[in-house]
Amino acid sequence: MKNRNIVLYVALLAIGIFVGWIAFGGDSKKDTTHAHEADSEKNTMWTCSMHPQIMQPEAGDCPICGMDLIPAESSADGLLADEFKLTENAMALANVQTSIIGAREADGNTIKLSGKVVENEEANTVQVSYFSGRIERLNVSVTGEDIRTGQLLATIYSPELYAAQQELITAASIKESQPALYKAVRNKLKLWKLSENQINQIEESGKVKENFPVYATVSGTVTEKMVAQGDYVKQGQPLLKIANLNTVWGHFDVYENQIDLFKKGQEVTVTTKAYSNKEFKGKVDFINPTLNTKTRTVTLRVVLNNKDGIFKPGMFLEGQIDGGITSGQTQELTIPSSAVLWTGKRSVVYVKTNPNESVFEMKEVLLGNRIGDSYKIVEGLSTGMEIVTNGTFTVDAAAQLQGKKSMMNASNTSSALKDDHSAHTIEKVERLKVSEEFQKKLKIVYNSYILLKDALVEDDVEVAKGFSEALFKNVNLLPLKELKSTEVKKEGDRVKMELEVSARKTRDAKTIEGQRESFETVSLQLQNAIELFGINEEVYKLYCPMVNNDKGAYWLSTSKQVLNPYFGAAMLKCGEVKDSIE
After folding, report:
1. Residue 180: Cβ-neighbour burial (10 angstroms; 0-12, 13-18, 19+)
2. What is the pLDDT of residues 180-239, one digit of tens each?
3. Is the domain of 227 the same as that of 175?
4. How far from the centroid of its chain's Cα atoms is residue 291's Cα?
5. In the 8-state DSSP scheme, what is residue 315?
6. The domain that contains 539 carries what CATH number?
7. Residue 85 falls within a domain, yes or no?
8. What is the pTM of this model?
9. Among residues 388, 417, 414, which one has the least CA distance to residue 402?
10. E strands of 74-188, at which residues?
11. Residue 56: helix, strand or coil by DSSP?
12. 384 φ, ψ to 5°?
């Protein structure tokens, strides 16, 4: 009986403990779970599925499109101070692409050039008439006809030559008594390119010829007929242009930052689409000392053997030439030009620091010469690094929004240590000293840009075309001679060249979409120019994150009012003021 009571008490105690654990232990676990969820909710950042650059600490609506924000992936853990992470969604929307860079052998380094075939000016000749008269017969029927030295080209009736023949016949009859007169008349006919045989024939026959032949003095191909049968010509007037096409010239365009890679005597491999399976060799014969200010190129001339008539004047050529690597270099590192962002004197790229995640960090690089669509890397990167080659601007915008080191943010100071007004410290590019005249001309360029911007705001493609033409002309008028020091002149040359190219694209665009696409590049380059040289006026930098499928783009304005040139009336107020240039 006593043992039965003990067993009963133990059973009741066990039941009590179990019930207590259910009542209190379960609640404790539930409370702990709730606490963790609350904690997690508190630390969650919220983003927009359509605009992943938006990051907010609380749920709500997207300030751009009004959609509900969703929780963003946590990416801060384990990252270094200057690193930041993009979500897979953001990577896909912005079409961000990366590439692993590697060194290549310098011996295999070639520079590709584009050019065309032109006539060898040294072998060109103009066949002229040596006496005045009327062309009775023209024996050259078409351009492109081959002629040889001594071939009859035309017959001409010349009143002057007719009279001179009569003088010769008269002088011949008195040559014994008037030898000086006789000799002068013969020399006069020789000046009109009559041969000794022709003169003797006239003298011996005693008859005057009405029509005189004109013979070719050189062999070649007729490239232009400058007269027609029946025309009256004067002494020395051109009749035909004749080209000797046994040798031709290949004219290639070389950009100014490539000039130092070329020298006279270098061997060039030439190809043409007409003979795609053949390669031809030539040598650099001449490098034009004058720069074409419109294209920012110089002409490199290559002499080509053309005895077989393969090359036709006007034919397009492609040339490959050694890249000019010095003997001490065995390898070079190059990156696509699309990977580089410019700000003042700085060139930056974005490196993917984690091969398994979308983690990036900005790197400043020192660039060498540009070769085609690539830049040589002098300093800042090494073989095997993975860099952003497409969507670079979007990655930079993400870095700015997350307060990381970027093209515009000089340093990464934790936003927790700053107030809202200083969370993003914008680097001020060091202003270069230039004359007031240069600043005035740059301000005229800026004024043209503002008029173009206003036309795009109004969706007026024709007005925008007119102002883009004015912008292009004003860029060409920038007085580089006002830039004194070598460093400043180098920056001025670069800025002017880049502005000319983008302004030309805007001018030549046929649609407003094309104008807006080029306008984005013009905006960045003009911003760079104003930051470098100044225009003695405050300029506002505005930003729209939805341009180019949410890649984002800047534009410049004289005021803080948001009038979007990339969308016009469709999204007139989309954008915000990011900064200003003092």
Report:
1. exposed
2. 888 888 888 887 777 788 888 888 888 888 888 888 888 888 888 888 888 888 888 888
3. yes
4. 16
5. -
6. 1.20.120
7. no
8. 0.40
9. 414
10. 84-85, 97-100, 103-105, 110-119, 124-128, 133-138, 146-147, 152-157
11. strand
12. 95, -10
Identify whether 3 is part of a domain.
yes
Residue given tokens 């008037």 in the structure block: 178
**In which element (H, E) is residue 479 found?**
none
* CATH label of the domain that carries residue 391: 2.40.420.20
Calculate Rg over the CA atoms of the chain. Answer: 39
Q: Count Cα neighbours of 91 within 13 Å in the Cβ-side half-sphere.
A: 14
HEC string of 97-116 equals EEEECCEEEHHHCEEEEEEE
Q: Tokens 């950042």 correspond to what residue? A: 45
What CATH number is associated with residue 193? 2.40.50.100
pLDDT digit string (tens) for 100-151? 887 554 444 567 788 899 888 887 888 888 888 898 888 887 888 888 888 8
Positive or negative, the CA dihedral 175, 180, 183, 187 is: negative
- Final residue of a domain: which of 217, 243, 269? 243
- Rounded CA-CA distance 86/135 in Å is 80
The dihedral built from the CA positions of residue 253, 256, 260 and 261, taken in this order, carries a sign that is negative
- Pairwise CA distance, residues 280 & 293, whole Å: 31
Q: For residue 413, is it left (φ>0), alpha (ψ between -120 and 50) or beta?
A: beta
For residues 486 and 415, state if they share a domain.
no
- Tally the domains of the chain: 6
Q: Are residues 256 and 402 in the same domain?
A: no
Could you tell me the residue range of the domain that residue 395 belongs to?
91-108+329-422
Lookup result for tokens 């302004």: 503
Say yes or no: 38 and 70 in one domain: no
- Residues 173 and 299 grouped into a single domain: no
